[in-house]
Amino acid sequence: MQKRISNLPFKGTPEQKQKLDEVIERHKQERGAILPVLQEAQEIYGYLPLEVQSIIAEGLGVSLEEVYGVSTFYSQFSLTPKGKYNVSICLGTACYVKGAAAVLDKLTSILGIQPEECTPDGKFSLTACRCVGACGLAPVLTVNGDVYGRMTPEEVEQVLAKYE
C-alpha cells in the first residue's frame, strides 16, 4: 500500500521545532543519521509531514528526496497524523476472506476518509493493516487498541459512536 501525504495543514509548535533542531544537531555528524533523526522526529510530531522532512534534510545537509525515500521505505514511518482515535481494520487473509473489505468500505463512507488519512477535525484516523494476530476473530477492527472481532458493516456505526 502506497503511503499518503497528509490531507491536513501542518501545525508544528516552536517547542517541537526546538526539540527537532536538538535531535538534528546531536546526530549531524553521524553516518546514516537520517533514520535515527526520522525516528525521533516522529516521536516529537507523531508523524512525518513534508515540512518536518524538509527541516531534517536542510539540517543534515542532504536532499529532501533522500529523506523522503527513507521515510516512505520503512513501514514504521507515517506521513499522516493520527487522530485522537486511530481506527484500524485488518486486511490480512483471514479477515479479508471473512469480509473486512466491506467493513473498510463502510468506515470510509462514514468517516469520509481513506486509509492513512485523518478526519479534518483530527478526531479519527484510518489505517488498513495486514494482520493483528487475532485471526480467530476475523474480521477485526481496532480503535486505539480496543479490539472488535467478527465485525460486520452494520456494526461499524455502533462502534464509532462509542468514541463520539
Automatic annotation (TrEMBL):
UniProt key word Iron-sulfur: yes
Key words of the record: 2Fe-2S, Iron, Iron-sulfur, Metal-binding, Oxidoreductase
Signal peptide (UniProt feature, chain positions): none
Binding site for [2Fe-2S] cluster: C90, C95, C131, C135
Listed EC numbers: 1.12.1.3
Claim: Iron is one of the keywords in the record: yes
Pfam families in UniProt: 2Fe-2S_thioredx
NCBIfam families, sorted: nuoE_fam (TIGR01958)
Family, as annotated: Belongs to the complex I 24 kDa subunit family.
Name of the protein this chain belongs to: NADP-reducing hydrogenase subunit HndA
Lineage: Bacteria, Bacillati, Bacillota, Clostridia, Eubacteriales
